[in-house]
Amino acid sequence: MRTRRLSSDVGIFLVLVGIAVLFEVIGWQVRGASFLFNGQRLLVMVLQVSIIGLLAIGVTQVILTGGIDLSSGSVVALSAMIAASLAQAPNARAVFPSLTDLSVIVPVAAGLAIGALAGLLNGSLIAYTGIPPFIATLGMMVSARGLARYYTRGQPVSMLTENYTAIGAGAVPVVIFLFAAVIFHVLLRHTRYGKYTYAIGANALAARISGVRVERHLLVVYTVAGLLAGLGGVVTSARAASGQAGMGMSYELDAIAAAVIGGTSLSGGIGRIAGTVIGTIILGIMTSGFTFIGLDAYIQDIVKGGVIVSAVVADRYRHRGAKG
Amino acid sequence: MPYLVEVEGVRKAFPGVLALDGVSMHVRAGVVHALMGENGAGKSTLMKIVAGLLTPDAGRVFLHGRVAMIHQELHLMPSMTVAENIFLGREPLTRMGFIDDRALWRRTSELLGALGINVNPDDRVGELTIAQRQMIEIARAVSYEAQILIMDEPTSALSAREVSQLFAIVGDLKARGCAIIYITHKLDEVFDIADEVTVMRDGRGIWSGPASEIDRDRLITMMVGRELTQLFPKGNVPTDRVRLSVKGLSLDGTFSDVSFEVRAGEILGVAGLVGSKRTELAETLFGVRRATSGDIFIDGVPVEMDSPADAIDRGMAFLTEDRKASGLFMPLCVHENMEVAVLGGEFVTSGFVRQAKLLAACRATAAAVRVKTPTLFEPVQHLSGGNQQKVLVGRWLLTAPRILMLDEPTRGIDVGAKAEIHRLISMLAAEGAAVIMISSEMPEILGMSDRVMVMRHGRVAGIVDRSQANQVDLMRLAAH
Question: Considering the entire predicted model, what is its pTM?
Answer without folding.
Answer: 0.81
